[in-house]
Design a protein that fits this description.
- About 35% of the residues lie in helices and about 25% in strands.
- It is of the alpha/beta class.
- It is elongated, with a radius of gyration of 24 Å.
Amino acid sequence: MSPIKRRDFLKISTAGGVACATGPGLFARAAGAAPDQAAPGLVSPGCRGTKVKVAKLYMGKPGPHWPKPSLDLAAEVRSYEAAFARRRDEFADIDFTVNELVTSPEEVQALGDRLTDVDGILAIHLTIWIGPVLDAIVDRAKPTVIYAAPYSGHEWTGYGDLLKQERGALVECLLTSDPGELAFAVRPFRAGHHLREAKILNLTTRPFEDYAEAVRAKFGTRIERIDLPRILAAYEAVSEPEARAETERWLRDAERLVEPSRDDVARSCRLALALEKVLDEERATVMTIDCYGSMWDKTIKLPAYPCIGFSRLNNRGLGGICESDLRSAVTHVLLQGLSGRPGFISDPTVDESKDAIILAHCMGTTRMDGPGAPAHPYKLRTIMEREEGVTPQVEMRVGQKVTQALLIGTDSIRYFTGEIIEAPVGLEHDRGCRTKITVRPDGSLSRLWRNWTQGLHRQTVYGDLSRELRVFSKFQGLTLVDETA
């Protein structure tokens, strides 16, 4: 078989790239965005800035013995490009800045700086005899995921050894015939990109500069102080028609307005619009407020509690984080980058009779499946401890797999996975915070509570993200701790 001509490959890759780039996006259902769906201007949930830059490299040799001597490299590439095109929603925020067939180490080296400015490399194994090509890719020291389907070649027998070597610290392998795993491959790249571009606004009078500097040095994330007059000015600038429409929407969609008055809801909704306005002005994606700490002085200094505003931000692909919890804020960015879904901050309590941990917080997020997805039922309640304010009490989905995690400092992540077995949010469930889920861990509950450290708060998202966390942690040099193990 004659070698594939470069100009022919470029025609193939350009066509495939266009198919991926023109997809409707990771939150297609929210495009054009009703007020309760995705915020305008987002590249993907949690990211305002640029697309994730990925180098897609097809590794192959003309006329190979495996998978078969007559393999047509151009046809093989086309089949993969078609697989990407079929999943274009999952790659809508990915810019394949490099999309090349590489048949020799020299061709990898010739890519030069084009491989320097990428978030990661997706190396797709097509044929046998690509060892030197892979070596040249690994030598670039970029986060790299190898996708190797069955019969692609015998090189997989050395992948395990590569992962144990120091030079394999930034390499992960997927040995699979499932093209859906191509979407998994880019998720750790996306999370790193989101952290690097994230800007978190913190309304507090407490010092946090040391933590902010450590996070910026490690991940690139900016955490910046916002002051109370800025929020109050934005609150006053919200028009009455805007505030009234937002209020009516929350009241209309709620199952019930329990303790708060309509005026309480109106003030909360006006503040919600103000918070998003400030995020927009600052080109930030996450807001957190010290609502239980230095912002509290017998009566809250804000015109309302921020719970409705935080839930609204989470629903729209941004982030609202309770109590100036910066660790949870950074973890929110990470988990949203991996999953496209918002998190639920919680305080835990344990019930060994049910082999479960109860995760509770007053503020619930109604669109835990992400922007544009159907909303969960909710009631409008007061904050339990204060018996004032307005917060959405959300009924999450029983049977849903979840992941709870927290980034500790800049060097480790603690996590566990489990399944929601109850959502005790009836009026009779009056102990603890308003929104609650009872989760049966996948591992040992006894080990979970005996291993518990680092305070109360964690972030919980829908889905089992254990694989994504493992790969992300490897690429970022983090220690990953399963608290149930």
